[in-house]
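Checked the freezer inventory, then went back to the computational side. Two predictions to log before the end of the day. The first one is the construct we discussed on Monday; recording sequence and tokens without edits.
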Amino acid sequence: MVNQIWNGRPLSLKVIGTNAGTSMDGLDIVHVQYDQEHPEAPLKMRLLRHGEVTFDAPLKKRVMRLIRNNQTSPEEIAIVNIQLGEFTAAAIKQFARDEGFNLQEEVDLIAGQGQTIWHLPLPEMFEGDQIRAHLDMAEISIIAAKTGITTMSQFRVSDMALGRQGCPLFVAWDSLCATHPTLNRAVQNIGGIANITMLPKGDVQAGYDFDTGPGNVFIDGAVRYFTNGKRQYDKDGVMGAAGKVDQSIVDEVLAGPYFVHDIPKTTGRETFGDNLSEDLCKRMLARGATPEDCVATITRITAKSLVDAYKRWGLKGGIDEIYLGGGGSYNPNIINYLRQELPHTRIEFLDKLGVPCGSREAMSFSFKGLECMLGRSLIVPRRVESARPGIIGQIQPGEGLSYHRVLKHVQDFWGSYPLEKRMEPTLRMEIVRERSNGVNGSNEGSNGFGH
């Protein structure tokens, strides 16, 4: 059918994807190649490189203070937006130098999410005259100017404009990577905030996602509090493993309004920030707890909130497999509790599917950028407020010749393909991986089928 209506050329674009997470440990960066023989063929994705550039320490301190105190000025907002853009551009250049490739020659697009400053998806849970809103910052005009490459961002607020919450915003990517024909799966991200993508078997368009609550953000806050900022997180869960869980505190926190709120729901540091983490620590210390007890208890809050979410909003028939991503996936105090409470569920790292554990979000943003440039919608999640599809993201052109080459490549790909079909979402993707002999090989089937 496509050969009768299409006279275009195959697609081949290389995209830098970035993600600045809630934990603010660093900027995750990936270099991904996308190929598609024709508009109705499976999209092929090959991860070329991935890494992380540590967050600029003074800038991190300034951004965290800005978020924590919720007090700033137009002047500071303007400056921080530029500073974050400059940091992102410098980090991408450093990544290219470290990995030994030329940005201008090997990158067509940059797509990423700036640092989330404020996320207000459920205004009814906040005092005052609130509306649904989102702000993330890292000025893409700076990134495009300093790299010369067309840059895209603002995916979350674009999704919010279509009537949803703008987060987690990973259903499309997770569905294409992990949906299985006969197994119910979930993708579990444990970053600063934890989120779950539920993937019913056999239907790439049936997934839904939501934030469960704090991931590492509470734990990191407690560790910073007890070490006066000398340590930023509980490496290997050592501090938490040395303490005793206060179950009464866990139960009290998990009875709070966010945890009992029905899905769809998303959240951030506005609700689960360092202030709340430190208040819990002070209360526990006053009751005779040790710092280790505090970290153990706060870690259990994260772990139990995940288990509760699977039990309340999980898939019919249960979850056969969970695939882990994010820094918290390496905390044994969280993962061992998951294994204990979900004994019939196989739990693996995302790496098994060809998506490195720490790169899933940056890879997802590279895909969002690709689809924005092509003018395609993403798969709309189930169990959301609005089923309205749309092309999400904002584009800042890079250097003129580079930008026009990308535009021409996109135009050549579509050729005579009908305009009314071009916005349809990608429903099949193959993950191309390097075999041990250095030869490229694809996963068996598409959308994770065959795993």
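The second is the one RB wanted added to the comparison set:
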Amino acid sequence: MPRRQFSCTRSKLSEEARIVEVGPRDGLQNEKNTISLGTKLELIRRLANTGVRDIEAGSFVSPKWVPQMADSAEVLNNLLGHPPAPGHHISYNFLVPNLKGLQKFLNTSDMTASQPTKGSDSIPTHPSSSKKSPEWPTSNTSTEDPNEMPSRQDGQANNTNRASDPPAENTSTQDANEMPSRTPGSEKGTLKTAFSTEVSVFAAATEAFSKANTNCTIAESLERFKPILSLAKSKNIRVRGYVSVALGCPYEGPNVDPHKVAEVTATLLEMGADEVSVADTTGMGTAPRTRELLKALSAAGIVNQDLALHFHDTYGQALVNTVVGLEYGIRTFDSSVGGLGGCPYSKGATGNVATEDLVYCLHSLGVRTGVDAHKMAEIGGWISRELGRPNDSRAGKAVLARLSS
């Protein structure tokens, strides 16, 4: 009797997916209590040894708006001078909300490059981009932080946070070192070092969110990004774009226009962004609306290789939406160890989908990630204890319970 085939069989999904770990930046930025530099560096070091190849490490934003990220220059300095040595290439990403933030990033990199490097053969080189950067004006007036959720109207920083999804058990037998650092074909240039640094910018899919978060319209925010992209590409620095509230806005509700999301995404790519992560910031996304969004992105001429998906698990739909993305051909997903992160402006919201849960889900479908889920679960338990918060990762807690039995 011939074997029956279903829409989500292992044979169909048996390939590789890339995970972008956002815990050290997106996950920690809203924590109430100050987190020490040592804890942040230790978190990054541990994550680097799980097989993850892309890590959000910090944010060059004003400490006035995001005090938790005030030591990002020190994080970058330590990574450049004393990089983890996991045996595979890693890209460390830093958010730069405006030209001033990018200049701080560059100044820190230049200062560290002039000093002797310890623990690595050389200072990292930035992957070059095959895309040409148009000549754009170099003015930038943005002083706001376009992070995850908008800054409060009264100017208060985001100081609350909730953990989200659970860590996941590893059923993969694949060699983590066989995983590419990004989707095949998108890596630019020849890697001569063990790691590289990148930058990212954030845009929004709704006018209300954009105005609340950056005090400007969507069009104005995109205009401000032009000199950032131009300068970054002139220095062969890879740039990642984000489009927030793509599947639900705390001000305009769940029905965000997917064509507007596609328009903003396409604009970022046309500016020179190497990849755009489309984010369900509030966790309002559902499977049907995720499918509708992906169709709109495809209709706009955006290829899957230029996209990543970023889900929050507020309503428990993050993994469901991930599978929809997989079926549609997306192979890059953002997640945060232990589900760190949160939506302080959406009542009942939780954080990013937990890396542990995402890995468990992908491995169960036969999709290779190169990530050791046992190590990831242990990190989820460790960082939860460090922060004095419960470990909200269901799969991670299950793995830890089994390991301790």
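For RB: Residues 218-234 form the longest helix (17 residues). Residues 5-11, 117-192 have pLDDT under 50 and may be disordered. Let me know if you want it refolded.
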